[in-house]
Write a structure and sequence with these properties.
The chain has helices spanning about 40-50, 65-75, 135-140, 145-155, 185-190, 200-210, 215-225, 265-275, 280-295, and strands at about 5, 10-15, 30-40, 55-60, 60-65, 85-90, 90-95, 105-110, 130-135, 160, 165-170, 170-175, 195-200, 230, 240, 245-250. Helix 1 packs across helix 8, helix 6 (about 200-210) packs across helix 7 (about 215-225) and helix 8 (about 265-275) packs antiparallel against helix 9. An eight-stranded mixed sheet has the order 4-1-9-12-13-14-15-16, with helices on both faces. It has one domain (about 5-155, about 165-295): Ribokinase (UDP-N-acetylmuramoyl-L-alanine:D-glutamate ligase, 3-Layer(aba) Sandwich). It has about 300 residues and is of the alpha/beta class.
Length: about 300
């Protein structure tokens, strides 16, 4: 089985539990605070790792206290450090979780969000048939270099039929994320031309497409990517427009959510891994829903 390249960030999540977000100038007490590994790419890789599907976490690690934490934690988990960035601190993400389980983020981006195409020479690109990326990396100043690298890789594995339609030997999985509307449109259009499988939540899909319904948003996105669109709906499960044609909803597993932080990443990682095992998209989405539910109850 060929592997999955998981490209993106590994950060320190500073998890801060509070009753509710403070108002301006208000002084509130923190219920508790913990530090743990996070970052979209790390979370996706962790979900893939649980399935036994081969992958490489292509995540740079910086310096400073947070870099030391990431480096030590990765080694303890048996995950190779892909590359060290010696001239820039690693960042962190402050995650405020209120009593409802909802999260609010404040991020300090460091070395983990930088991309250098030279780093990718450390990985065996030919051994991978799937690549995951997150929109946070695409938004960064080095995001253009990431898109150009992807364009080069996909150009090398493309085929054009008699009608002029182009297909690729690799599959790109793209999770645009909550800052979707801040990604330069030109970069988005270039990524869409690589026919990615899109994975995003309802709010992201509606805001980016200026739509009133997920069905409308999915049709707009599928027309742009010419591929499957997956829109997570929280407790209502997931809406899928498979290959831009077959629309259906896969129900969620009813749970009492304690912490939704990283649930979308767990969903995405499990989905990719299940598809790699040869499962149908509907079965993969069911397994992804189960993994996300287990994650929020942990």
């Amino acid at each position: 089985m060929k592997q999955i390249l998981v490209i993106g960030s590994t950060v320190v999540d500073v998890i801060i539990h509070i009753d509710e977000l403070p108002r301006r100038s208000e002084d509130v007490h923190v219920i508790n605070q913990t530090l743990q590994l996070g970052g979209c790419a790390y979370n996706v890789a962790s979900a893939i790792r649980k399935t036994g599907v081969p992958y490489t976490l292509c995540s740079p690690v910086g310096t400073g206290a947070y870099g030391d934490f990431v480096r030590k934690a990765l080694k303890e988990n048996g995950i190779p450090i892909f590359t060290d960035v010696e001239d820039r601190d690693n960042g962190c993400c402050y995650c405020f979780i209120d009593k409802t389980g909802e999260r609010t983020f404040m991020s300090w981006h460091g070395a983990e969000y930088v991309f250098n195409p030279d780093w990718m020479d450390k990985g065996d690109i030919s051994s991978a048939d799937s690549i995951y990326i997150c929109g946070l990396e695409v938004e960064e100043p080095t995001g253009d270099a990431l898109v150009r690298w992807l364009e080069d890789i996909f150009e090398q594995c493309s085929h054009t039929d008699d009608s002029g339609a182009r297909t690729f030997e690799k599959t790109l999985y793209f999770a645009p994320g909550p800052r979707l509307c801040r990604i330069p449109l030109e970069r988005m259009e270039r990524l869409f031309s690589l026919n990615p499988v899109l994975h995003l939540n309802e709010e992201e899909a509606l805001s980016f497409t200026d739509s009133q319904t997920v069905e409308q948003a999915a049709r707009i996105l599928a027309a742009a990517t010419k591929n499957t669109v997956v829109i997570t709906l929280g407790k209502n499960g997931v809406y899928c427009l498979e290959d831009g044609i077959d629309a259906y909803t896969v129900p969620a597993v009813p749970v009492c959510a304690r912490n939704t932080n990283g649930a979308g990443d767990a969903h995405m990682g499990t989905l990719i891994a299940s598809l790699k095992k040869g499962n149908s998209l509907k079965k993969a989405l069911k397994e992804a829903n189960e993994a996300a539910s287990a994650h929020v109850c942990a």
